[in-house]
Amino acid sequence: MALLISAPLKALVQRFSFLFLILAAFGIMLLSKTETLVVEKFSTVVVDVFSPIMDVISKPAATINHAARTFQELANLREDNIRLKRENERLLLWQETAKRLKSENKILQSLLQFTPTPKRQFITARVIADSGGAFVRSIIVNTGKRNGVRKGQAAVTGVGLAGRVVAVGHRSARVLLVTDINSRVPVLVETTRDRAILSGDNSSMPRLTFLPTNSTAKAGHRIVTSGHGGVFPAGLQVGFIVDGSNGIMRVKPNVSFQKLEYIRLVDSAVIAPFESRSSVKGLPKKAAQQ
């Protein structure tokens, strides 16, 4: 008797299980759309809780990478020494020219009553995890509200812009990279002074959109942030224009996102004193100021 009852019940469950999963998936998507703030807050709390674990896990890998990079640098030390000597001789000639131009520039600025841009504050942080997904380009750093990190700060490296802070916890923060499909950065073609928008599309090279039709920008021209909108400071290096398919101009970022270890979170607001607050334990002061 029990077998006669359980067999139809099992068949009924198997028949409607797929439909139930589809309805559950739609329900989750609708919930994420209607309660965006709740989902974002829950995601930030989860990342904040697990950030110490990710920090500990990432340390051995960072140490191994540092040791391998140090060994490679020692192997190429002789070639680098010869190259640096040649560059030093060439730079000594440029130094005299730079001193003369600096003196002239100072005189011209005094005539124009030029007001220099105040220096900005930055916070050094270490990357402890990335998104790991096919549709999101973001990283997690080991610093948060306790170190003064705020949503909207620009994330930069020594070579250029990497992204901006989109979520902040107490001990961690999430940085949206410029290659993400949700990233939009007001930029400027340094040579032609044409303004445009750097639009990410989850590829390695974001698109250059809203460029004027009469622009003479071409491959090789450097792209920097324009400072419009107040999110990103003006003048941050982004990358170089490359020719894309279908006449779409793309930008090759200066930052190598696969090798990100340390970043600086820069305030877009004007702050008078230039002060570094490193959140990386054991990071030398010299490295924090690079």
What does this structure look like?
- The protein is an alpha+beta fold.
- It has helices at 2-34, 36-75, 77-112, 285-288; strands at residues 122-130, 138-141, 154-156, 161-168, 173-177, 184-189, 195-199, 207-209, 222-225, 237-243, 249-253, 262-266.
- The model is unreliable at 270-290 (pLDDT under 50).
- It has four helices and twelve strands.
- Strand 3 and strand 4 form a beta hairpin.
- It has a six-stranded antiparallel beta barrel.
- It folds into two domains: 39-112, no CATH class; 117-271, Rod shape-determining protein MreC, domain 1 (Thrombin, subunit H, Beta Barrel), CATH 2.40.10.340.
- Helix content is 39%, strand content 22%.
Give a brief outline of the structure.
This protein has 290 residues and is of the alpha+beta class. The protein is built from four helices and twelve strands; from the N terminus they run αααββββββββββββα.
